[in-house]
Design goal:
Elements: E1 7-17, E2 22-27, E3 41-43, E4 47-49, E5 51-57, E6 60-65, H1 71-77, E7 81-85, H2 99-102, E8 106-109, E9 114-123, E10 128-133, E11 144-148, E12 155-159, E13 164-167
Parallel strand pairs: 8-13
Antiparallel strand pairs: 1-2, 1-7, 2-6, 3-4, 3-7, 5-6, 8-9, 9-10, 10-11, 12-13
Length: 173
């Protein structure tokens, strides 16, 4: 279970905080403090760390990792991703998905037109967006589409087993 594909990024190490090895933490979890529910952290390529202490600091978080003892140590891990084993994530309710599960799925319209494959999922603030790429330009001259992930309105179904997302979307758009 040590392959990179078995891990998911949940945050990033920020700048050093003070001189005793503390670092700022940029969490990608639903609630920022939720990042500390997971252990161990894999920082950068494969370095495994345990959290010694953490605390809120203003509107952000700071943490002391075991083995990071100085500002120089903290500087060496600055801007590195924080990952955990994917199987540490909580089970989701029926109809809920992790973005990583959607990546690689085929996207087809309700009329059966193949739009391409999900390359990325991101949030614009208003809603999540599927970045869908076709193998080559299609009949409408499209190689990439950005489709809002709005259940029932745009996204009609997600078949996790079949790896297919069905959307009510005009292929010419």
């Amino acid at each position: 279970m040590s392959q990179a594909s078995d891990k998911v990024v949940i945050g990033k190490i920020g700048a050093p905080y003070g001189i005793k090895g503390w670092v700022k933490i940029n969490a990608y979890t639903d609630t920022p403090e939720g990042i500390f529910d997971y252990s161990p952290w894999f920082v950068g390529e494969q370095a495994e760390y345990q959290i010694d202490h953490w605390r809120p600091h203003g509107k952000s978080l700071v943490a002391k990792l075991v083995g990071i003892e100085s500002r120089d140590d903290a500087e060496r891990i600055k801007n590195l991703d924080i990952a955990i084993f994917a199987n540490q994530l909580p089970e989701l309710e029926e109809g809920e998905f992790y973005w990583r599960e959607l990546t690689g799925m085929q996207v087809v319209t309700t009329q059966g037109y193949e739009l391409g494959v999900v390359k990325d999922v991101f949030n614009t603030g208003a809603n999540d967006i599927l970045q869908v790429k076709a193998k080559s330009k299609d009949a409408f001259g499209q190689k990439e589409r950005l489709i809002p992930f709005v259940l029932e309105e745009v996204v009609q179904s997600v078949n996790k087993e079949g790896k297919v997302i069905t959307v009510d979307w005009d292929p010419g758009f």
